[in-house]
UniProtKB/TrEMBL annotation:
Transmembrane segments: 67-87
Tagged with keyword Membrane: yes
Family matches, as InterPro entries: DUF1776_fun, NAD(P)-bd_dom_sf
Protein name: DUF1776-domain-containing protein
Assigned keywords, A-Z: Membrane, Transmembrane, Transmembrane helix
Length: 407
């Protein structure tokens, strides 16, 4: 055998070995793949859903019982409306009367400080006397004392308070405190009882004639601040010892519709309102430390029968929006006087809460647009006390709407 033939045989053997190795490798791979795919694939574990919530269960139940759900909703809506109407009617029919002693004598005392001839103040202290309180009305002059006595009410008594002479005022209030501390008898051989001061009702006079700031003299500013701000502060200051001693509730009643909007031509009323607001807030914080509650009544448009009757006689048309009845204010005042924890602020009267929100939240540009931009407000000089409708000189809803339409 030649060398060339030996080389060819060697190459053929090497090739056969390589081909055999490749074939064995492919057979091994094919066997592995066959075994792999022959076994069934295991499914991934099922994901467990969280348990349904109470709201989801309720939704499923409502979806399955649509008719019954509608009936239940209708029942609750009707019942809520009926309960609201019932509570309101019961509240109106509720008899609000002051406590009496075993002998039938009146024991609860209320002091009212404000403009005596003001229709709102007059209606307030007359209603308190009818409800069974012994009402003392602060009188600074002999004319005011005569006016109070002319009401011919046995338990409506003037409380003389001379603010010009502080020593005289202290002596007058000392006699009043001695009267509260001494025993009283309704009749001979009756059980003695003591008078209890349960409340001080302050009705500041915020009325002022509309005028531009440049037309108000310094004397008018001084008179307004003295008569409306300092007079209220001095009266309250003199009565505080008795209030703190008896833990009586303090009520401030102020008209708020005009003052919260701060319209033009009402700078005096807005200034007085702001000063009394700061005084009331500070006083409430101080009295809270002594266990005395202070409530600020923000009054809106209230129907005062005396003022309404005079307006009808004068031919003034009735307002389009009916004012809040005066009885609502009287009921709120009574509930606040006898409450142990009365509210800090109460809105009584149509427009009070609405204008308070507008004046505190809305920008001045919106208020100016509402009042009528570019139009001069008409000056209406109301000097009569009988023209008071919640507050003399205050803007009612109808006046504001009319000025906006005229603009």
């Amino acid at each position: 055998m030649t060398d060339a033939q030996q080389l060819i045989n060697y190459a053929r053997n090497q090739f056969n070995e390589i081909a055999a190795d490749v074939e064995r490798h492919f057979d091994l791979v094919a066997g592995n793949l066959k075994e792999r795919f022959a076994k069934p694939l295991s499914a991934p574990p099922a994901r467990r859903l969280p348990p349904p919530t109470t709201w989801q269960l309720a939704q499923r139940w409502m979806y399955k019982h649509k008719a019954l759900t509608a009936a239940i909703v209708a029942f609750f809506v009707t019942g809520s409306v009926g309960a609201f109407v019932y509570v309101k009617s019961r509240d109106l029919k509720k008899k609000r009367r002051a406590k009496r002693s075993q002998s039938g004598a009146r024991t609860d005392v209320v002091v009212v400080a404000g403009a005596v001839t003001n229709p709102l103040t007059n209606a307030l202290y007359l209603d308190l006397e009818r409800r069974g309180f012994v009402v003392y009305v602060v009188a600074n002059t002999s004319e005011e004392e005569h006016f109070i006595r002319s009401q011919s009410r046995a338990d409506l008594i003037p409380l003389s308070l001379d603010l010009v002479d502080p020593f005289m005022a202290q002596n007058q209030l000392a006699r009043f405190q001695n009267l509260l501390g001494s025993e009283q008898r309704a009749f001979d051989h009756a059980e003695p009882h003591r008078l209890n001061l349960i409340g001080l009702v302050v009705v500041p006079d915020l009325r002022s004639n509309p005028a531009r700031v440049e037309d108000i003299s310094s004397e008018e500013w001084s008179d307004a601040l003295n008569a409306k701000v300092l007079h209220t502060i001095a009266t309250t200051q003199h009565l505080l010892p008795a209030v703190i001693e008896h833990k009586a509730n303090v009520l401030f009643l102020t008209p708020s519709m005009t003052a919260t909007l701060k319209p033009p031509m009402h700078s005096v009323e807005s200034t007085v309102y702001g000063a009394l607001q700061g005084f009331t807030s500070s006083l409430a914080a101080e009295l809270k430390q002594d266990g005395v509650n202070t409530t600020w009544f923000k009054l809106g448009n209230i129907d005062i029968p005396a003022a309404t009757a005079k307006q009808r006689r004068d031919g003034v048309p009735a307002p389009r929006l009916k004012p809040t009845p005066l009885r609502t204010l009287h009921d709120q005042v009574f509930d606040t006087l006898v409450a142990k924890r009365p509210s800090r602020t109460l809105h009584v009267g149509r427009g009070s809460l609405t204008y308070d929100i507008i004046g505190s939240v809305m920008p001045p540009s919106f208020i100016a647009w509402m009042m009528g931009v570019g139009s001069r407000p008409r000056i209406v000089r109301d000097t009569s006390d009988d023209d008071l409708q919640g507050s003399a000189g205050s803007l009612t809803w109808e006046k504001v709407d009319q000025e906006r339409l005229d603009a």
